[in-house]
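Provenance

Sequences were taken from public entries as deposited. Structures were produced by running a predictor on each sequence independently, with no templates supplied. The record for Palmitoyltransferase from Glossina fuscipes is shown for reference.
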Amino acid sequence: MRIRKNVWPRRHVDWLCFLLIGISMPFVFIFEMIVVLPFIHPPGSFLHTFTFAMAVFLIFNITGNFAACIMVDTSVAGWHKCVKCLKIVPPRSWHCKICNCCILKRDHHCPFTGCCVGYRNHRYFIMFILFLFIGSTYAFIYNSVFLWTLKSGNWLSFLKILCLPLMFVTGSLWSNMSLIFYNLNILAVVYSIVLLIYHLPVILKGGVSYERRKGAYPYGNDRWQANLQEVFGKRMHLAWLSPLLRSELIDSTDIWKID
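Predicted structure for Palmitoyltransferase:
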């Protein structure tokens, strides 16, 4: 597996999205574990221990797949000449003007990772948004209980969620902290749901987002298991456990074949 030489985002919007994920995730996780979880489950109890273990598993997979998606080099050189980067590249490779290179089986340029999602890191991107959905939904349930039941949130709290500027004129930063994280939680749930709805049907058909616009897919609906293996590798049934678990991808020449 090749590692990208320059892993940093190239555009200002990529930096903003990257920092939103990179900074908010650890702060939200610490807040959830130190403030919310002990407030709901007494420390030392079975539910506290179980929920803490699940949270560690989820945050490890969210951050691990996020980091892997950024670090894996998806660029390629091969069979046809790209008029932009002047290299010979294989079929199903498309040029990214932001990364300034051709990407094998390019899906899209992700602003949150600041890099292109392609053949070698597609698995990590999908696992990132899948675990982000599970983790943010899990946290949303706990935060809702914490905010609206145990802390008896009122109509003003609801207005602050709908209108963020109100947090700067009413209450202290600490009193509004749970509302800020609650908003980030809702954003993560919505973001992950939208991405899963958009990407999963394309993957099951064996395509990528770039081909979705063109209406061309390599395999089709009847080979969804093979299409999943193309993304998650030969050990796809175990690949979800950890981004560190190796799951060898199929021979890259196979992804050029069209039935």
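The CA atoms of residues 160 and 166 lie 5 Å apart.
The chain is about 55% helix and 5% strand.
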